[in-house]
Write a structure and sequence with these properties.
It contains twelve helices and ten strands.
């Protein structure tokens, strides 16, 4: 798989089913390499991935991330095997654990993340599979922000997918991950040059994350203090998490992730109001050049 070109990272539950195929084909037509899609409280991840693959021809489709607590290891493993047979070289299985509050809302358990994921990966590897094997297995990446999960990803998977991280954190993760594994970095973007409007939209997006402890812990390793997380987030924190401004300014942030060690950078194109509905204007403006 060639992940050199940028990707798009999207929350697709805001789109009607009839819009999903045209949206994925647009991402493909614009030259992006990967369409990453989330799993929240809507469409089931692997079903959605199957549909997106069926609607495109070359685009790599990647779960970013499928919540491991929502399915048994054999379900994740054999779905990935089936998709890799039916759509060779076009599916990445991104796995993660979400968080305690999110899983409580889903009605599934939450336990020690690293121990659980280690056992889960082991269960995937030993799961029986009676259909014809794929030419190659789908790569697995972990949604990883903390040292022990990054170490597990380095030892057992193809690499990591980051989220809500500035380039300084990308550099830290690359140092911990080593040079041989994929580092796929997500970056939220807003094509808004007015600072007041841009930061208001960014805060609307960030609000649901600022109260989740592991984001504060992770960002504390690159210099952010508890005071940065109150009252909607400090300007410094907002500007670190959401790249806003002109097209050239935003592209500079994407380049900073690459310079910090990312193999692949994917944009989260926030709506003008900070909503999660993908912003077509940003997707078009930030498409790969030449």
């Amino acid at each position: 798989m060639n992940l050199a070109a940028p990707g798009v990272f999207c929350f697709l539950d805001s789109l009607a089913g009839s819009a999903l195929g045209p949206f994925a084909r647009k991402v493909e037509r614009l030259g992006y390499s990967v369409l990453w899609y989330t799993e929240g409280f809507g469409r089931e991840s692997l079903s959605l991935g199957t549909y997106l693959l069926s609607q495109t021809e070359r685009l790599i489709i990647a779960s970013g991330i499928a919540v491991a607590f929502c399915r048994e290891p054999i379900a994740a493993s054999n779905a990935a095997r089936a998709l890799s047979e039916l759509f060779p070289g076009r599916f990445i299985l991104g796995l993660g654990v979400s968080n305690a509050a999110g899983n409580q809302r889903r009605g599934v358990r939450y336990e020690s993340p690293v121990a659980f994921m280690r056992g889960y990966l082991g269960g995937m590897k030993t799961a029986p599979y009676g259909a014809p094997p794929p030419p190659t297995d789908a790569p697995v990446v972990l949604g990883s922000l903390h040292p022990r999960m990054i170490a597990l990803a380095a030892a057992e998977t193809a690499g990591v997918l980051t989220y809500f991280t500035p380039p300084e954190k990308t550099a830290q993760i690359r140092a911990a991950l080593g040079l041989e594994k994929w580092l796929c970095a997500e970056q939220a973007v807003l094509l808004e040059q007015d600072a007041t409007r841009a930061r208001a939209a960014a805060r609307a997006y960030m609000s649901s994350y600022l109260g989740i402890p592991h984001y504060a812990t992770m960002l504390g390793t690159v210099g952010f203090k508890p005071a940065d997380f109150v009252d909607g987030g400090s300007d410094q924190l907002v500007d670190a998490i959401v790249a806003w401004g002109s097209e050239d300014t935003v592209r500079s942030r994407l380049a900073a992730h690459r310079a910090a060690g990312a193999d692949h950078v994917c944009i989260l194109p926030l709506g003008p109001d900070g909503s999660l509905r993908p912003d077509d204007r940003a997707i078009e403006a930030l498409a790969p050049r030449g």
